[in-house]
Amino acid sequence: LESGSFDPAGFAAEIDRMRELTSAPFGVNVTLLAKREPTVIDVILEQGVRLVTTSAGDPTILTSTLKQRGLTVFHVVPNLAAALKAVDAGVDGLVVEGGEGGGFKNPRDVATIVLVPLVVSKVDVPVIAAGGIADGVSMAAALALGAEGVQMGTRMMSSAESPVHANWKDAVVAAEETDTVFLSRFEGPSFRALRTAYSTELERRDKWACGSSVACAISTSAATWRLRSRWAAR
Ligand SMILES: Cc1cc2nc3c(=O)[nH]c(=O)nc-3n(C[C@H](O)[C@H](O)[C@H](O)COP(=O)(O)O)c2cc1C
Fold first, then answer.
1. pLDDT higher than threshold 80 for residue 228
2. Residue 161 CB contacts under 8 Å (≥ 6 apart), including other chains
3. Ligand 1 atom closest to Cα of residue 31
4. Is the pTM here over 0.85, yes or no?
5. Ligand 1: which atom is nearest the Cα of residue 152?
6. Of the candidates 89, 48, 88, which has an alpha carbon nearest to the alpha carbon of residue 71?
């Protein structure tokens, strides 16, 4: 259950709804990039959530606070250095996410098939693989690479239960293997999105492609800002 789209009351209501829908264990995600941690953490503790994944930020920010309260903490990492830092911070496990994944990404993306076995070979905590995993075959591959489990984003977003608009789901399902685009590699925050006419245009405006043209740099910043604002408003 992601926490970034809700105010504290809405997030608490989502947790209640999760408990109505299932008696199975579940966890919540806290994106460290967002400036809402204090209130989100209060809700997590008040609601008795047992598992938190932290992502997009420094694992030292929250790990000890959550661990002191008895929660299990997994941190999402895009490379080996981040994995080692998270282990040093005391996490119970890692979500190791390759650059194939949708959403925010490290600008120096590493393929899941490279990253997962590398991290597994260097750490003693359990690893959940993410990035490009969408079915049983890719899940089996992740397990073969040494992961204990998988995290899926794009597949879940496209499911019947997802609140995302049907047109978006249909576009994801109809997409070909070349239909994602890595955006904002040079300015950040980088992310992988569905290829559309608009995202292809943004890809073209990436700073490297623009060279040193001031007009292009300004339009790139404006486009990035628009996307950031949209993302923040999710
Ligand atoms: C629309 C969308 C929203 C996402 N939101 C978050 C988020 O709030 N926090 C997070 O840690 N990861 C987020 N992710 C990343 C997913 O949790 C997951 O790690 C990633 O999508 C895995 O790659 P896949 O899309 O190939 O399955 C998001 C991904 C997508 C596609």
1. no
2. none
3. 9
4. yes
5. 27
6. 48
